[in-house]
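Example (one chain per record):
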Amino acid sequence: MGTWLRWLPTGGKLRDEDWTARHRLLTVILAVVVVVVTVFGALGPGDAVTLLWTDLLVLPCVVAATLLPNRRLRSVCVALGFTVACAGFVSLSNGLTEAHFAFFVAVAALALYRDWAPFGAFLVATTLHHGVFGVLIGGHTYDHSSAKAHPLVWAALHGFAVLLAAGFQVVQWGLTEAEERRAQDNLEESQAQLSVAFDETPVPMAMFAPDGLLLRSNAAYREWLRLPDDLPAGFTVRDLPLIPIGEDTKAFDQAVASPDPLTMVRQYRRTDDGQLIWVQVHSTPLYDKKGRLRFVFAHCMDITKSRNHEAELRRQVRHDSLTGLLSRKAFEHDLAELLAGKAPVSVIYLDVDRFKSVNDGSGHAAGDDVLRALAARLSSVVPPGALLARLGGDEFVAAVAGEAAGGLRLGQEILASMSEPLEVLGNQLPVSVSIGVAAEHGAEHADDVVLAADTAMYAAKRAGGNRLEVFAEDMRVSVHERLAAEARLRQALAGHLPWTLPLWFQPVVSTVTGQIIGAEALVRMRTPDGRILSPYHFIGAAEETGMIVPLGQHVLRSAIEHLIYWSGHLGYVSVNVSPRQLAEPDFVPALADLLGQYPALDPSRLVLEITETALLASTVDVSERLATLKRLGVRIALDDFGTGYSSLTWLKSVPADIVKLDRSFVAGLAEDQRKASIISAVLWLAQSLGMSTIAEGVEEPADWTALQAAGCPAVQGYFFSPPRPPEEFQEMLINGVCVTSLAQFT
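Predicted structure:
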């Protein structure tokens, strides 16, 4: 029994709005039925008394169904009204069998209530009508003799038929409820899953009504905005602890107005701590079937960190990481925009003089401190609105709009500002710069004006530094020559070195015997067309580009190979060493390795010539570096002696073996008693220090004779021979050409 009961519908489960709609429909139908029955009774065969009673009984049911407060009573009134209407219709039809079909229609209609009260009331009332009225007024209930003779039997038959019709309605009703229960269970399960997904997701989420009322929010949303779990009634989007920043701030209004999902990025200020945050809001509007907006679903992401990271990356792209000035790329972009204006633009290009000595002597960290201090100094001089950038290394550039005189004035102010030492880690460090200035107009000339200023800066540096040069067209010629020299040298170093960069030799002659006792190796360049170029055409480019290092290695190796080849005829070979070579950390190990490849060679037969300029420009401890070289067994010659500011000091402090007197002391020696006195003093000092002396630039017989008389042990110059290729020099060694030349003057 219990199993069957579970199959029966429970009834009364319609939602209020659904029940109200169905009840309104059935009440209207009942009222219409009353009208139809009244018209039928007035025009049909029925009597007026039956019609009157029918109307008097149905109309109160209609009124009660409209006015009673309890919905079950109202539905029972509708059921009773349908029973009276159907009974009146049968009576007015004089019991016509087909008129009884009205009861079956009423059963189906009342099943819409899905409630046992109106349904049961109709079944009971219908059965009573057929039984009672069939006995009392059978002629108005049934239209055949059998029913009139046995009214109870036919009442039972009619009641059973109505019951069967009702039964099928109950089955349909039960099946519908079962399906609804399954749908409800599925809906509740889905809602539970969605609720868990909504509440437990770490992404802040919220649902808003179209008027901004906060309908629901998850824990992440409340935690993000520091809201309590229980919000006060009427809490809206305007009550959130966020103040929008900027003009286009009506994010919620845009979300409501957009028919499609919308992603917005907005900046807000938190009212609780005043912090500025960036929020990415993704809103999704949800509409009902009629296209009306029900609510807006929003999930929010705090993208402050990523936004700040992007801003920092953009700042790093536009600014130099070391100094904070504009980067090269940002300067090029801004310069093009500045040049596109109406006024001309002046570019001031500057480079720190001898900056490499700071890096090599004190380390790159100290060099970075100098660059930062220099950037601060430049920032204080360059006016607002001008561009200031670090292009890389120790090169800076500024650009200012206005007449060329303004750019020149700014360059002079920068140069003047360098007269004061820089404050670097509590120390006062003097720094000088070389500055080039150029002016141009038009964005298409951005590269040209920077190159022109760079060219002028190099002119200032070649002129000694700590000065300013304004670009002139003839400077382009020197730049092109420098670039051409650099290209030729690169090509030569990439070729067969003995052919592209051959060594020539100038003899060193003894003043006592007139014999060749040594030679100075001097590098030349052979071009692809066979021309021989002197060092004047490429040594400068080699020094500036750093190619002097591989070039010097080649000269050393080639000089040693020639020295070994001429072992029976030549005492030694001297090789010039540039400041760049001397400062290289690998110079001494590389030379030691080279000497180790020729174990039969006496290292003292190799002389390294160091100029006083090289000693001054060197970034290393000169005495220590030269002492290390001497431990290898090679000899040191102090070249161009007498051209510097403190030659005697170097003579005392440098562990040299040979002093080479500069040609400026030798030329005209025979006619200048003061030069003779200086040379005599130097010869005496060198001898007292255990050094030998060579006089360079001897070109006249009188100077040769004077040097002999002064006791200078060796000489070198065009009087004997200019630098010659190895074949010609070898012939001089074998044939004793120098002795023959001397015989003409003795």
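Caption: Residues 1-5, 739-746 have pLDDT under 50 and may be disordered.
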